[in-house]
Specification:
The complex is a heterotrimer of chains A (281), B (211) and C (269). Chain A has 281 residues and is an all-alpha fold. Chain A contains 11 helices and 2 strands. Chain A has a single domain, classed as MetI-like (MetI-like fold, Orthogonal Bundle), CATH 1.10.3720. Chain A is 78% helix and 1% strand. In chain A, helix 1 packs across helix 11, helix 4 crosses helix 6 and helix 7 runs antiparallel to helix 8. With 211 residues, chain B is mostly helical. Chain B has one domain: Phosphate transport system protein phou homolog 2, domain 2 (Methane Monooxygenase Hydroxylase, Chain G, domain 1, Up-down Bundle). Chain B is elongated, with a radius of gyration of 18 Å. Chain C has 269 residues and is of the alpha/beta class. Chain C is built from 10 helices and 12 strands. Chain C folds into 2 domains: 180 residues, 3-Layer(aba) Sandwich (Rossmann fold); 70 residues, no CATH class. In chain C, helix 3 packs across helix 4, helix 4 crosses helix 6 and helix 6 packs parallel to helix 7. Classes of the chains: A mainly alpha (281), B mainly alpha (211), C alpha/beta (269). Chains in contact: A-C, B-C. At the A-C interface, helix 7 and helix 8 of A face helix 2, strand 8, helix 3 and helix 6 of C.
Chain lengths: 281, 211, 269
């Protein structure tokens, strides 16, 4: 009887913890919506910020989109290529193990360190200035390990039977990768890339040091233009705003950021499920 | 570890041994009846019919084993041999029955003076049958040489007896009876040698012919 | 079961022994690392005959099969010694083009492995790869290959559907059609029915017998009855060696080697 009671107690405790972790996400979402929805208006979404906390956030929305797109443009091909090399060509030796260790470590690297590196190396040494380009490249450092890992996993789950069938038809290794392995792996790779983009879009420290001040009033016109972004905007307004309207704008920007992030996560989830269904049949 | 197939093969083998013993008894009885003038037909017919039923049983079991176990190599050859042997044994019984019937059909009986050569052939034929049963039981194909010797001896006796009967001018009805009997005995000896050939093929995979 | 047998277009009394040699192994050895997988293989596989390799797991039968289209090359630790001739050409010469070689040898695997594409694209994969045809020419190859695999009537109205929607037996026939699409001389089948139900198995077996009219078929199987039903020549392998090779009826009714006897009567080990 006593053991049964203990069992019950443990079960109850676990229910509580699970419940807590489940409610955190809705609480945050509801909190952000409740506080931010008042700020959302056509003017807010299409206008420019002025006098610090007033005005709209159009340049910040576009800045975030530009940064993430450009970062994906750099990070995704590099990550996918590395993943192809690691999973298809590299044999299991010291070099590949080292490469893997480096990418794993890069994934866990504090973003402020990456930001600092971007600042020193890209902004000052390569004289890219705090700009769209420097920000996107720095962000792609952050994204790279996620893309590599996800792509490698996606490539590894492509059954070896497909490869054998293709090779037995007289295809070369590269033809097999291009025509069979990648098409089969692409949903998994896209999921990984989208999750990486989700990480990049919410990143604050890196863009703070490399992309721009955050309150830029213009959509960047060149790669060298300083570029504002939503996380930076939120940070600045929330910490240094003086008015109730400013705080509401911070919540409004957070809501927009949240929607963009959720859109990526949901499409990643959708692609993943679709893909699993196809493999499962 | 014995395979399920072995159980079935052993069952068939014991059926064959049973058939063999019955046919040996039928042969002994019918010869005794022939030479001593006892009526043995009813008994030998009963035995012969039993053997027939058993041979059908062998056939059914063998078919089952083929369908269910798909035997191969020596198993397949053994099964094939068993089916053929069942037929040979069935012939033993039938010929024994035929021998026991002869005197009933002939009616009046005048034995010819010297029966020794016929009795001797009867004994030789029994030896052939005994040896063929030993083949079934032991599957010892090394007995092949002995078998061929026995079979040849039976054949010689057959020819000698045949010669003697063809020269005889008396007892015409009795002569027919002896003639038929030695003919049946010769057939039995032949089937005994077929049994040894079947066993030898089952064991070695090589066909030998004593004929 | 047809009793006549085609050699160079002439109907002759069936005898695999009379057929021409298609694939000849001469003193062939193969290692994976230090593991000596194939030992001094000397065997001549006849043209337009179904030849079966059988033997216990790990005897090297699949490896032997894969030596015919050099699929073992994929494994980095694989080393070979000795020669394999196809139509008199040594395919283990250093200047042999393995990609050309594999075009002349079709392969069907244990598990049906169609690509995650439409039925049409599966069959068109090889011809597109080797730029053999396009447009209507490609349609024709697809149709002929599917007919060759006796699948055309079942799938002709749904060529654009994903091949995964087919049953296991149909998927395996898609794979056979895919192997036929590049017009090979030799078809290698590595336990092609082990993942299929009995009815699908019978269909594939019937297909194998049909294929041998045009192709040389080499089959690896651990299903003895299948080897007995389908093949004309059977090789029994044990720990990397060919123990016995001969006409299937001889091997199954009257094997010459005790190991073969013990294996096929289930008295192994």
């Amino acid at each position: 009887m006593k053991e049964a009671q203990k069992e019950k107690a443990v079960r109850g405790l676990l229910y509580v913890t699970v419940g807590l972790s489940i409610v955190i996400l809705p609480i945050i979402v509801v909190w952000v919506i409740a506080n931010g929805v008042g700020a959302i208006s056509l003017g807010f979404l299409t206008g420019r910020p002025y006098r610090f906390e007033y005005g709209g956030i159009f340049p910040q929305i576009m800045g975030s989109i530009y940064l993430v797109s450009l970062c994906t443009l750099f990070g995704a091909p590099l990550g996918i290529a590395s993943a192809i090399y690691l999973s298809e060509y590299a044999s299991d030796n010291v070099v590949t193990r080292t490469v893997r260790f480096f990418t794993e470590t890069l994934a866990g690297m504090p973003s402020i360190v990456i930001g600092l590196f971007g600042l020193e190396f890209l902004v000052y040494y390569l004289k890219l200035k705090t700009s769209l380009l420097a920000g996107a490249i720095s962000l792609s450092f952050m994204m790279l390990p996620w893309t590599i890992r996800a792509s490698e996993e996606a490539i590894n789950v492509v059954p070896k039977e497909y490869r054998e069938a293709s090779l037995a038809m007289g295809a070369t290794k590269w033809q097999t990768i291009l025509r069979v392995v990648l098409p089969a792996a692409i949903p998994g790779i896209m999921t990984g890339v989208l999750l990486g983009m989700g990480k990049a879009i919410g990143e604050t420290a890196v863009v703070w040091l490399t992309a721009g001040s955050g309150l830029e009033a213009f959509v960047p016109r060149t790669l060298k233009s300083p570029t504002g972004s939503l996380p930076m905007y939120i940070y600045l307004i929330a910490t240094q705003g003086h008015t109730a309207e400013g705080l509401q704008n911070a919540f409004g920007a957070s809501l927009v950021l949240l929607v963009m992030f959720l859109a990526m996560s949901v499409s990643a989830l959708f692609i993943r499920n679709h893909y699993l269904r196809r493999l499962g049949s | 570890m014995s395979r399920p197939l072995d159980i079935g093969l052993n069952q068939i083998k014991s059926l064959l041994i049973k058939m063999g013993r019955l046919s040996m008894e039928a042969l002994e009885l019918s010869l005794k009846g022939f030479f001593d003038g006892e009526g043995t037909y009813v008994q030998t017919r009963a035995w012969s019919n039993t053997i027939l039923i058993l041979s059908e049983e062998v056939e059914d079991r063998a078919t089952d084993l083929m369908a269910l176990h798909q035997p191969m190599a020596s198993d397949l050859r053994t099964l094939k041999a068993y089916i053929k042997i069942a037929y040979d044994l069935e012939r033993f019984g039938r010929y024994a029955m035929d021998i026991s019937e002869i005197r009933n059909r002939i009616g009046e009986w005048e034995p010819i003076p010297d029966e020794e050569g016929f009795r001797e052939m009867g004994e030789k034929t029994k030896e052939c049958v005994t040896m063929s049963l030993e083949f079934i039981e032991t599957m010892n194909e090394r007995l092949m040489w002995d078998m061929s010797k026995l079979e040849a001896e039976t054949d010689q006796l057959y020819l000698a007896n045949l010669g003697r009967l063809s020269e005889s001018e008396e007892h015409s009805k009795t002569i027919i009876a002896y003639l038929l009997t030695i003919r049946y005995l010769e057939r039995i000896a032949d089937h005994a040698s077929y049994i040894s050939e079947s066993i030898s093929y089952a064991v070695t995979g090589k066909r030998v012919s004593l004929r | 079961m047809s009793n006549t047998y085609m050699i160079n277009g002439d109907a002759a009394a069936f005898s695999p022994r009379l057929a021409l040699d298609k694939v000849v192994f001469k003193g062939f050895n193969l290692w994976y690392g230090d593991n000596h997988v194939l030992k001094d293989i000397d065997i001549a596989i006849k043209s337009n005959v179904v030849t079966a390799f059988m033997g216990p797991s790990g005897c090297g039968k699949s490896t032997l099969l894969r030596s015919i289209d050099r699929m073992n090359d994929i494994i980095p630790s694989c080393k070979t010694e000795g020669d394999v001739y196809i139509d008199g050409r040594n395919i283990y010469e250093p200047d042999e083009d393995v990609y050309e070689l594999r075009k002349t040898v079709g392969m069907v695997f244990q598990k049906p492995n169609p690509f995650p594409m439409s039925i049409y694209d599966n069959i068109a994969y090889g011809p597109r790869l080797h730029k053999m045809a396009s447009g209507e020419g490609l349609d024709k190859i697809v149709e002929e290959s599917l007919r060759g695999a006796v699948l055309w009537d079942e799938v002709k109205d749904r060529l654009q559907e994903n091949a995964f929607g087919l049953s296991g037996g149909q998927q395996q026939r898609v794979c056979i059609a895919r192997a036929l699409s590049i017009n090979p001389d030799i078809i290698l089948m590595d336990e092609p029915c082990s993942a299929l139900d009995p009815i699908a198995t019978i269909k594939i077996e019937a297909l194998m017998r049909e294929l041998k009219d045009k192709y040389t078929v080499v089959l690896v199987t651990h299903n003895l009855q299948q080897a007995a039903r389908v093949s004309e020549m059977t090789a029994f392998m044990y720990i990397g060696e060919i123990i016995e090779f001969g006409a299937t009826s001889d091997v199954f009714e009257n094997p010459q080697n005790e190991l073969t006897e013990n294996y096929i009567t289930g008295r192994f080990g």
